Amino acid sequence: MTQNAFGFDLGDKDLLAAADGPSGDFSPVPAGWYDCLVDKSEGGKTQKGDEKLSMTFVINTGEYQGRLFFGTFVYGHPKEQVANIARSQMAKIAQVGGIDPKTPDQFENARVGVKVGVKAAQGEYKAKNEIKGIGPIPDDAPQAAPAPAPATTAGGRKASW
Q1: Which of 8, 56, 129, 158 is the most buried if burial means most Cβ atoms within 10 Å?
Q2: Integer distance in angstroms from the first to the last C-alpha of the chain?
């Protein structure tokens, strides 16, 4: 058993040696459409207090399987056009994913196509991927197992978005 300077029990691991090892690849994937699953979906509020839905998408198949994209849909934005775009994207996820979410977490495991672009590096910020659209799973995507059936909410409440 190894303990580090902070007193954490590391089992047989050497934390400092692990720091020199490989880390996750955060470089952007090429722009295009990807077969993705909604890995995580949470409701919340922006710093200004506007209702939002934050989602993590994970590439489901192919060369970049396991890579993540992050999207925030501000459906309570004071600018109606911004709110409508967010609601439209959320509705597209529900439609393509074959779900009828009543709560934010019910978007999880929806399988959708995600169109990503690459935002160029600016100043101290590195290049990164941005979600450009939601749609059907690309025809040329490798086949994957179907997503599990979403959970249902008792009471049949309608979502506020």
Answers
A1: 129
A2: 51
- Considering only residues 159 and 71, tell me which one the structure prediction assigns the higher pLDDT: 71
Instruction: Please give the Cα distance from 95 to 38 (Å, whole number).
Output: 13
Measure the CA–CA gap between 79 and 136, rounded to whole angstroms. 28
Does the global pTM surpass 0.85? Answer: no
Using CA atoms, how far apart are residues 78 and 115, in angstroms rounded to an integer? 26
Residue 51 in tokens: 């209702």
For residues 144 and 60, what is the distance between their CA atoms, to the nearest angstrom?
Answer: 7
Helix locations, 20-67, DSSP H? none
Please, what sign has the CA dihedral across residues 40, 45, 46, 47?
Answer: negative
User: What is the residue type of 144?
Assistant: A
Quote the CA–CA distance of 87 and 73 in Å, as a whole number: 7
* Angstrom distance (rounded) from CA 70 to CA 76: 19
Q: Are 51 and 75 in contact (CB under 8 A)?
A: yes
Summarize pLDDT for 111-140 with one digit per residue, the tens.
999 999 999 999 999 999 999 999 998 787
